[in-house]
């Protein structure tokens, strides 16, 4: 098997290119349901607005539940079998699931296929970021993950365009086809040299997920890493996915669609991921960049919920764009997760952390339902968002700085 070792060469390596394109397809498929939620449910006979919201949240929970399961599965496999096996195995699974999604006729079929797609979607980003982090020199790996994120999140914009122009069923077919086409690039990618060295050491335990919970220092770091990513999925899973419902609650002057809200949010994410990654390199600090973006995000959540009542849809979409910029720290968050742990647990952490953060939607949805029922739609969202942001800021502030850290070591 071909092996890669960190060198002083260009940042734009085959591993970076394939990881970026893989994340592009990953985001396309991950966000596609939010874009086509209303149209697909209407076509399946769900017309009532309250039922569309309820069934939509159920399907989101199925997808995110699959990501929770997949995060553990692919993370362990990434440390036991290699980063490449996960990178492409996950792409194959979610591609086939999304092609099948284009044929669904019932809500139950839709739900089970979103679960399977969620399991597949769980593996790509963590494996890609781990491979890139281990394949580039420590001074450049932040730029590599920045490229992965910037290219990847633009997949949501393609998802919106395809969903609008070709219909929701064809949008699923396109996503599956893109994933299968990406598999052809596997031959150009090398396995991580760090992983190969650890694999040769029979005495080193690899991919032991439970070991994250048996050592207090490791457990503390792991839980804090998980908490950093929750605000992004509060924004995407609640504020943006339920854009039509928030538009009505805010008294906007016209109807807004979830698809267009997702488009503008992820357009902002392209810029946010580029800026946050670049700042972490310029400042030589991952933590400082994350803290700045969390404060920025808190400000924009407040604007979204309390600053645009009675505004036009154009203003609403503009706020979604800037809100997207403010949560553009996703790849930086996954990079920090990868940098906090040794080679024998790195893929496990880098894969489970983003999926547990994404899967937090499973807990955020019932929490939002409860709070919105008790306090009101907008105040309930404000309380939930405020709590997630405060906890994430604390988590960042207490994590060890990982910029420039040597990753060639194992966890005991």
TrEMBL record:
Residue spans crossing the bilayer: 12-36, 56-77, 84-104, 110-131, 143-163, 169-189, 222-244, 256-277, 289-308, 314-338, 374-396
Membrane topology recorded in Swiss-Prot or TrEMBL: Multi-pass membrane protein
Sequence ranges assigned to domain Major facilitator superfamily (MFS) profile in this UniProt record: 15-412
Taxonomy, superkingdom: Bacteria
Localization terms from the record: Membrane
Signal peptide bounds: none
Pfam families for the chain: MFS_1 (PF07690)
Protein's UniProt keywords contain ATP-binding: no
UniProt KW keywords: Membrane, Transmembrane, Transmembrane helix
Keyword Membrane included in the entry's annotation: yes
UniProt-listed SUPFAM superfamilies: MFS general substrate transporter
PANTHER family in UniProt: CARBOXYLIC ACID TRANSPORTER PROTEIN HOMOLOG (PTHR23508)
Protein name: MFS transporter
Species this chain originates from: Hymenobacter negativus
